[in-house]
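Help! Submission page says 'invalid entity' but I think these are all valid:
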Amino acid sequence: MKTFALAGNPNCGKTTLFNALTGSTAHVGNWPGVTVDKREGVYKGGAEKVAIIDLPGIYSLSPYTPEEVISRNYILDEKPYGIINIVDATNLERNLYLTTQLLEMDVPVIVALNMMDEVEKVGDKIDVAALERAVGVPVVAISALRKKGIKELMDRAIALRAERRGSTVLGGALAPKIERARQFFEAGGVASPLFHAVKMLEGDEIELKHDGAKELYTEISAGQDMEAAVADERYKYISAHFSTAKNKKEKSALTKSDKADKVLTHRIWGLPIFAVILFAIFHLTFAEDLFYINTIYSAANGGNGLPTFADMGYGTLGDSEIYENFGIALAACFYDGAVFSPGVILTNLFNLLLNYINYGIGLGVEAAGAAEWAASLINDGIVGGITAVLGFLPQILTLFLFFSILEDTGYMARVAFILDRIFRRFGLSGRAFMPMIMGFGCSLPAMINTRTLADDNERTATIRVIPFFSCGAKLPILTAIAGGMCELFGLPSVELITFCMYVLGIVTAIICVIVMRATTMRGAVPPFIMELPAYHIPGFKNLMLHLWDKTKHFVKKAFTIIFVSTVLIWFLQSFRWNWTYIGADDMGESILASVGQLIQPLFTPLGFGSQLGSYGWVFAVAAITGLIAKENVISTFTVLAAMLVAGFEGTEDGIGEAVVMIEATGMTPAACIAFIMFNMTTIPCFAAVATAKAELPAGKFGGTLVFWLVTSYLVGTAIYTVGEWWWTIFIWLAVAVAAAAVIILHNTGKIKLPSFKAKRKS
Amino acid sequence: MTKLLSDFAVGQRGRITKVNGDGAIRRRLFDMGVTPGADVMLRKKAPLGDPLEVNLRGYELTLRKVEAACVEVEV
């Protein structure tokens, strides 16, 4: 099967063409060693089947970004049958810059001139035949979006002659120099000698590593700035022959895109508009009181809100009721005392479906007459664990849909533009904002979204702090314990405590980023030189494909690691050391409980360790079960509270549980806060851990787990000690100042820390 | 008169004469079409005054002031 590689600039319609060519045959993986999407598929519409490889979007073949290195190595080493170079006809000049480089390689090339319909719409013309004559390879006008010209493109691609020698547009004074370098590489038996020759003249690091190349480079360049000369010559050639840019701009002074941009990146209104858009997205995804209808209604009615189904006499919709009263259960997915947002409605519907499936499986297990432990393994361990993770899916997808729309319309690039100034202070670029803010919803899409960050160190630092932006699943821990604290210690407001915890999480994230960028994740602030694509309305089909890609990714990657770990934890909490099964209610005898007792002293500096006496291990156990999903912390509380107080019934918000636990163990307020912060900043749920493993650059995963453990331990200890003994704040400050001084002195070269250097992995 | 792109006022136009800066940044600028001879116009500044948005070769490019300071322009 012939293989064709798709190459082109970002935003030139490459993905659209790839989808049009390969349809459902496409599958996505990663390029070896880096997390850049590797998409492959099969085109079946021609005389023969051909494989299509989608190379990452690139502007050039310089070896400075992972995308460019991947594309270059793929073409040179894997030797595809041919390259389909997609060129955005509305942006011909810059797009052809890449084309002139591709043509220098010894590989058949065909140019797909995309978005010709757009060019014609504004009244411009591009002479396809003239372009074809000039570049010396076939040029086909297409519209990837409307699927026009694709058959012709592929027919001509398949008919390409298998051999092609590289050709260059560079002439004039450069020609003899290039020829000398070309002969050098040809004599050395290197494939694509012309390509290597030109790259060497540009002072390309990779090429200069060849034997004798450096000497030749010094001789040929003779101190001249060859890099500028080559780039200049390429653009000169292009603009002399194909410049459509000029007349286009003068014809229509203000396009629709320009008008939208004027508002969205306005000097004063740009930031507030962005804040409103962001709020709307979160509201539509997570709000349980859409547009605050219920809040407004109850304010107008003297505090009486809209009735819930329980108020209407249907009883609380517990697990057993939903099977008896399907109509109400279904209705309650949309409304129950308040209208839900689309994201919440989808979650409810999906969870209702999962409930039925679980119920069915439960009945099946019962009918099969499985042993008690086997039934628990299937129901609580496997099905329960997977449900906990899959339950996230609808909201992740909703959030992704909104962010994909922002991405596809071109607004996301403007957000980076607006916010870059703020983020540079912390050593990040404006692009790091989106993943961080997404973390408030769920860490998983947030971590996947870090793919837009170009720099590996910036990416690692961002992924590591994402869990500190407290996600939706951590909120119940916050409200339950804060509620318990208010009840026991007479504190005024749950909301205030919760809010402070969120702020504390953000502060921790900022400090960690600054420290990381100064130590292990060092590196200059990555340059911020990027295209701001024209705004356009995203295509529905592309959006859906986008979403499907990400869902597949999530489900596949998350499943393996989550499955194993949930079963493991189920086993630990359901069995005694002598391998006998215990019911879920006697967790106190389980292996997990003794592990909890074992590690309990570790939490002493955080205030929920040895000082809590014989029941203190419950907090250690809750922290461990929180690894499956942070929701488990509170459900573990319920089980444990029932163990501490006979006849205890769980409460819906978990506050009752928190009260019982705090009272029984005698935890102090400082320890409660330390416990919250520990859970907020420690290793996140397994789903997030699995995603982090998939998204982090190679070799950074182990360090990330250590980072989470150390940070949460330090934060918890600091909060507890300062809360108990206020003067310890001076010790913490002194240590912080000393650490900062050492880092600064080390980074400015004033002192040397040999051991520190040795520890750095990169 | 030669002026650095970072010192441009919004709406000002010029023709690039020279691109300075270290290897990677300079290469990136070249690859994005910021080469001697190209016409450039400062379209706008971000709400906080930095980065900048310029129009060149028929498209919009954003870059920071520090990077724009590598670009010498004849106005």
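Support: the input was valid. A stray whitespace character was the problem, and the output above is from the cleaned input. Strands of chain B lie at 2-4, 13-19, 39-45, 52-56, 59-63, 71-74.
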